[in-house]
Structure formats: C-alpha cells, structure tokens
Design goal:
Blueprint (H helix, E strand, L loop, with lengths): L11 E5 L4 H12 L3 E8 L12 H15 L2 E6 L1 H17 L6 H20 L4 E3 L4 E6 L9 E6 L16 H6 E2 L7 H11 L20 H5 L8 E4 L5 E5 L33 E7 L4 E6 L7 E12 L8 E6 L7 E7 L5 E10 L6 E6 L2 E12 L2
Parallel strand pairs: 1-2, 1-4, 2-3, 4-7, 8-11
Antiparallel strand pairs: 5-6, 6-17, 8-9, 10-11, 12-15, 12-17, 13-14, 13-16, 14-15, 16-17
C-alpha cells in the first residue's frame, strides 16, 4: 500500500489525470483510501493540437473515460500560455545558445507543481497527486523548526524512478504533493489497472518531450530556430561534412549526422572505417561541429563537470563531500564528490569517467534513495 494511506484523515486531493495508466491508478488508489478525489486534465500545448503528432485530444478522452469509471469529476484546464512563457521560451533560448535543455524538469517545477498546484488550491485541495514514480517522506521538525521537512525519494521501481525530473521541487511543493504509485512497480500498476477495468490499462507509455510527441525533432525545432549551416570536422580538423546548425545537434548524438566512414583507418581512435561517428564538441565561435569515431573516444569522456542554477530540495545546499549523481535520466548513480566553486557554482568530481556530459542537461545529486536536488550543467571537464 502506498505511503499516503491515512484512513483517519480524509483529504480533498486533486489528481493530474494525463490519460495514462499511472495517473489513473493513482486516482483509484486515493479514492480507495477514502479521500475525496477530483481530476484535472492539463492542456499545456495548443500550437498544433489538431496535428498528427499531438495526442492531447485523445489523451483527454482517455482521462475522461477513466474519471467516468472511477466516478470522479474531471476538469479540463488550459495552461498553454503559462507553459509557453515559463517552459518553451527557455527551451528555445537554450537550444539557440547551443545547449541541450530538459524541458520536463522545468515543466514539473513551473507547471505541474506551480500553475497546477495553485489552481488546485483554489479548488480547495489539501493535496495534489500525479502519476510520477517517486515518493515523499516527512522528516520530524528539528528543535527550533516550525514544521516538518520533506524529502524527495526515488520511486521503488528502479526502472521507472522519476525523481530526476522532480529535483527542482521545493519544500512548499513537496508538502502538498502525493505520488501514489511511487511505492509500486510498473508491472503492479498495469495489473491493478486491468483488474479495476480501467479503459487505458494497456495504453502505451508516452515518450519524448511532451510538446513534440513522436514527430521528427529536427523538423519541429526548425519551425522556431533559424539554421546556420557550417562545417563538420573530425578530431584532426578535417572537414568531412556539413551540419544544419549547431542548435540541431547534441553531444553524444549518433544518428542523423549525414556522414559515413573515412578512408584513413587511423583517422579515428574508435576503430577506422566502420566505427560510428558521435558528436563530441560544438564551437559556436567558428560554427563548427566536431565529431569523433568510437563510443569511448576520449573527447566523449569527462572526469568532472561544473553546474549552476542550482535548486536544493531542503532549501539549502548539501555539505561538500561524497554523494552520487546522474547527468542524464536512466543513468546509474555515479559516485562523485561535490565541491563548492564560486558563489552559486558547483563542481562534481567523478570516481569514473562519464560519457557525453552535456551542457544544458541536469546534474541531479543523491544520498542513497534521497534526491538532494541539482542544477544545470554548464561545462564538462576532461580531467
């Protein structure tokens, strides 16, 4: 049974119903525990919501069908203006600057646990709930503190843990947040959905960035960013192709480079003619894109990184010292040391080399199962 099981306290909980199975089961669990449950479907994108790649309309139909089966109210709320201003504009600025942002991190902090939370509070909610695979744990107040603290924990299913995307949540947000499926494995959630008879029990999980969906990423980005073609260079500085614009590539990228093998077998340290090419560096000053052959080429490996724009779950940065970190989602925790650099800037020194550390992505810190927070990667450091 999920941790949010308080039979003696009946809460009014507003659940973000996305149309997916995780939020649907979350709503059912809360209702079974005796809480008053209200569903809200968040519409965060509407530029082309009638296009082939936008599933918002179909998702709302699924969410409404779930609400009907569960016997709860559902409201359709449009947060597209807030999303465009707080998330999408920043997404475009980062790509224009040659970095690779993670809009889902910003969406959680600014939309799902800010705009949505504020709307839910106006509806008289005690708590809000989503289908994220994460957990919240209350920590008794220390002497002199007015209230208990809240820790953000990994979801119990290691294959589905989403604490990485939630690391910018603060104490006020976590105090109101409930993650009913955080104590479950995905297989259990699917099984529950089928047993309950939910109409979306077998619905495929959504993938990719929410406003892009399954469409070709480069095609989408090209609608908003100007392209400035330039040379694709190998590690020796030889031109082996032409890129469409630095904004359209990310470090570690292998597909869509438009280059094949090269004749010199010693040209790439990764293994000659047939070794795959990877994006290794961007040089905005010369508008050059550098690529290397081989997954483990030295240019793709970093011993450390710098990050800034930090956000800490507790409200305070952790003490410098040993911890673990992820530099991308679905990466195993990597042991490292946190070092305070200049004010507001931090360094992570890793025990083992890290692959394709990418500016603009999030570096998220952990102490065991506790997510401490993190920041935006500013630079990768080779040694």
């Amino acid at each position: 049974m999920p941790a949010f099981s308080r039979p003696l306290a009946r809460h009014r909980v507003v659940v973000g119903l996305s149309g997916g199975v995780d939020s649907a089961v979350s709503a059912w669990l809360l209702k079974r525990q005796g809480h008053e449950v209200v569903g809200i479907f968040m519409k965060n994108w509407e530029d082309d919501d009638d296009g082939a790649y936008c599933a918002a309309n179909a998702d709302f139909v699924d969410a409404a069908a779930v609400a009907d089966v569960l016997g709860i109210e559902i409201e359709h709320v449009n947060f597209a203006a807030e999303y465009k201003e707080r998330v999408f504009a920043e997404f475009l600025r980062e790509y224009q600057a040659g970095r690779t942002p993670n809009p889902d991190v910003l969406c959680n902090a600014e939309i799902k646990f800010k705009a949505f939370l504020e709307h839910a509070m106006r509806l008289g909610a005690d708590k809000i709930a989503t289908g994220h695979y994460a957990r919240v744990r209350g920590v008794p107040a220390a002497a002199g503190d007015a209230s208990e603290r809240h820790e953000l924990l990994k979801g119990l299913d290691p294959a589905k843990d989403q604490s990485y995307f939630l690391h910018r949540l603060n104490q006020a947000q976590l105090a109101r947040a409930v993650f009913p499926v955080g104590d479950l494995r995905k297989s259990e959630v699917r099984r529950m959905a089928e047993e309950i008879g939910l109409p979306n029990a077998k619905k495929k999980d959504s993938t990719g960035i929410c406003f892009i969906g399954e469409r070709p990423f480069r095609e989408f980005l090209g609608r908003y960013l100007s392209s400035q073609p330039g040379p694709v260079l190998d590690e020796r500085g030889r031109q082996i192709g032409q890129h469409m614009g630095l904004s359209f590539y990310t470090l570690g990228q292998r597909q869509g480079l438009g280059i094949g093998g090269i004749k010199d077998k010693d040209a790439g340290r990764g293994g000659g003619n047939h070794a795959p090419w990877f994006v290794a560096r961007k040089d905005p000053a010369s508008n050059a894109l550098y690529v290397v052959q081989g997954h483990d080429h030295p240019w793709l490996l970093s011993q450390a990184l710098m990050f800034d724009d930090a956000s800490w779950v507790s409200g305070q940065p952790p003490a410098p010292g040993r911890c673990a970190a992820k530099t991308r989602y679905r990466q195993a925790d990597a042991l490292c040391a946190l070092v305070m650099a200049e004010s507001g800037t931090y360094r992570l020194q890793f025990d083992a080399l890290q692959w394709a550390v990418t500016p603009g992505q999030s570096a998220v810190l952990y102490d065991g199962e506790v997510c401490l927070g993190g920041g935006v990667i500013a630079a990768a450091i080779a040694t």
